[in-house]
Write a structure and sequence with these properties.
The complex is a heterotrimer of chains A (291), B (97) and C (391). With 97 residues, chain B is of the alpha+beta class. Chain B has 2 helices and 4 strands; from the N terminus they run βαββαβ. Chain C is α/β, with parallel strands linked by helices and 391 residues long. Chain C contains 12 helices and 16 strands. Chain C is globular. The chains are: A alpha/beta (291), B alpha+beta (97), C alpha/beta (391). Chains in contact: A-B, A-C, B-C.
Amino acid sequence: MSLFGPGHGACPGCGFPIAVREALDALDGKVIAVNATGCLEIVSSMYGRNTWGVPYIHSIFENSAAVAAGIEVALKALKRENEAHVVVFAGDGATFDIGIGTLSGMMDRNHNVIYICYDNEAYQNTGNQQSMATPMGAATTTTPVGKNMPGKMGRKKDMVEIAVAHGIPYAASASIAYPKDFNRKVKRASEIKGSKYIQVHCPCVTGWGIDGKLTVEVAKLAVETGLYPLVEYENGKLVRVRKLKKRKSVEEYLKIQRRFRHLFKHPMGKDVLEELQRIADENARKYGLDA
Amino acid sequence: MVKVKLYIGASSPAMTSEMKTGDWGTEWAFVDEEKCIGCGQCVTFCPEPCIELVEKEGRKVAVIDHDYCKGCWMCYTVCPVDAIRMETKEIYKLEVC
Amino acid sequence: MIKVVRGFYAIAEAVRLSRPNVIAAYPITPQTEIVENLAEMYANGELGDAEYVTAESEFGAASMILGASAAGARAFTATSSQGLLLMTEVLYNAAGMRLPIVLVVANRAVSAPLSIWNDIQDSISIRDAGIIQLYVESNQEAHDMIPLAFKVAENKDVLLPFMICVDGFKLTHAYEPVDLLDQETVDKFLPPYNPVVKLDVNNPVAMGCYAPPPYYMEFRAAMEFAMDRARDVMLKEFEEWYKLTKRNWGGHVVADYCEDAEIVVVTMGSIVSLIRGVINQMRKDGMKVGLLKIRTYRPFPSDEVRDALKNADKVIVIDRALSIGAEPPLSADVKSAVLGNDLEFHSVIAGLGGRDVPRELVEKIIRDVAEGRAKPGKRFEGLNEFEEVIP
């Protein structure tokens, strides 16, 4: 029996099932899964069509961190804390935006929970509306491209740094393009007591406007351009980054996605492209990405 | 009429294997077992999952379960030895007059 | 053992005796002292193996007890007013997930304008969530109903959250003599929690699944039927409680003098005591008045209400909440229970946001009806004359 799927309803080429399976495998299925409302929940938890081979709970959109905290506390009170890892799977909308309050509370109290944010950079379940995880310049249905607007105006919120600022013992970013790296990070997280935050970059074929066959390549390019640096913090210290032998230009990543295509012809596009390259350069400097 | 079974508080254990998502796509992935080196890349990346490594004639090869294969091409793109090919399903090979 | 204690202590002590596993806390006036008292017990090691956890909001507190309950723990929290409104999304969810959490609401008015004072608009506002609601008259009743709440909520014929509504300040902060329970009595009454389903790696199930149209309506109907079954379960437990403690709180309603009363006053919460005093006096004066105290508000005791009002000519329902734009909530429920009866119906709104309801006002309300001075229908009592100034 698989711990997740087959038979779930994710789009062909969807990124997050890879992350979910990798995380469950890394923890040998010793998991109580807490899921926020979103794509993952919708494709996996219809009544009578449950996809999960581990105990699973979905409450509402913005409270999965608090529900996980409650489960962790209950397991402690019931002397069952060695039974399983409490693992949250929540999208970027549930994490960066609507659920940040409960996530902050969970991290502040340092509950023994692994929080995995599958970051597909918009509200993809409701059809690609911008979230605070949407990168600058991306066209979404709520930040469409028009005469006065070249897609989303602000930059992507740095949730990993926000997690680190809570003083939690472990925070990392990962990508489905590097499943072994993600697997190792989940395993590492499971060895540490306290709150763990792992943000895994998962392309969305429909929202990003990519061919299903490009899912892995796009995810890889996000890392290789420095726009999605893979970093690892333990007790507030940066302990590991994925070095890049030859950092690619952000354009290589952007040009193959429909959500960024307008940047190459919109009058304001050039500025956005420059800003995105600047963000990548800043990441490279900050984390020492260039090998 | 059949009575609906309503489990209060919880859904029964995993049952999605009854959802045969293999009929979603227009294509299916096939493995060239001669070329396959059994590295498992496709198994790791298959989102369903519907690929397994199976022992055949003393070596491991990837086997795809078309009951669940949505034809997403993921395995095709990650295979290091080009052992996977995508084929349009028979019913989609329509002749347009 | 009878002690003079404040309401919040009586509540916290009963929670302790109910051996909860998880308590989540977030402060809000006038509930705060309940969780403060529990915190003190926790700090002093008096809560056994229970875990006490402070939340980042009432929303977080409700979510934590939801998670704890799903994991198989007996879970408790308390709140008031805005806090309850903030919890609302989670509480609807917990009820739908059939999690037997227990919460105390220290009733307080809802903003705006901000008011920390008492009415029952907060708990009334979530009457449709699928949560059992019981309104108490005294701190003794609040103290006694807490073990009962856990027992009813956890009954497998029920499996719904249970909310005990206690008037903020008027009860929570009042000193009253309370016959405090002992552990032996509570243990005899309330067995350890044995969840029918829980998050367990050895028996994985999925909780909180979404239901497509072929199932959704059945799940919601099942809640309605569970609420119906709760009526009998509660009556049985009220009876058990009486046998065990010799304290008889009655059933879903308590009817005083209703058999031969021409006028019956219907209300709930702490105001009942005051009205009872007035009515006792009026009876001595030869007036045929009665009192119907609603204890269980959800499930609404329609049969009991109909029965108690069958001989009445006039009914006065005193609501301490509004359903702005419609009949006040309790009044609407009572009306639907006596549909078809030939009754003169008075819907009185009083005591909002801590507005005092003095004895004289209660007397006036009843006498106005008795002497035909009051027009039937909806009206405010104890309301100052005012003029709306729209700049």
